[in-house]
From TrEMBL:
Domain NADPH-dependent FMN reductase-like: 11-160
Protein name: FMN reductase
Keyword Ribonucleoprotein attached: no
Organism encoding this protein: Actinomadura keratinilytica
Keywords noted in UniProt: Flavoprotein, FMN, Oxidoreductase
Record has Flavoprotein as a keyword: yes
Pfam families the record matches: FMN_red (PF03358)
Amino acid sequence: MTAQPAAGRTIAVVSAGLGQPSSTRLLADRLAAAATAALRDLGADTEVVTVELRDHARQMVDATLTGFTAGALRDAVETVTGADGLVAVTPVFNASFSGLFKMFFDLLERGSLEGVPVLIGATGGTARHSLVLEHAVRPMFAYMRAVAAPTAVYAASEDWGSAGAGGADGLTERVARAGGELASLVAARPPARDRRGAGDADPYEDPVPFERLLASGGQ
């Protein structure tokens, strides 16, 4: 598929790291930088907007209970669903993605990520958890009908050292390859602003009545 001509693109970065600083945020930033560099090579200017889920934790709990997002959380959701591409990185807890990570994506409207290119990543203390990307994270985005880049990037603690970062298939190489794949997927689609109609309705202006939510089996 031929890449679109030079145009401004937006990459949304979702980091579910809990600490500051965070290895999860560090990996997310490196993936976004690699994708941005690859898009620049394709002639596209790129804006990167980062969503730190830890900053929205309380609002996500409220939104999960009420079914309604507001304020900064609503802005974060619109940033993600309105982007040309997505970088999503989670820490690994108990052999799966974090609850914070899952909670955020549970709040998105059905179909809001359909066709959106996404680069998935995860961090953990040991390489034994690397398959979390394939048995948990990739299936979630497949269910949401996003288009996940072929290369998923997992970074264990030892990957951050000079020996682990370089060499054949080291972290630096994997980040560059994954960033290039995301850039190609983004460049092959029309810019997000061109896919949105000028008269698109705000999905929050007409909320679903509570009685209908109950009738549909809301939990």
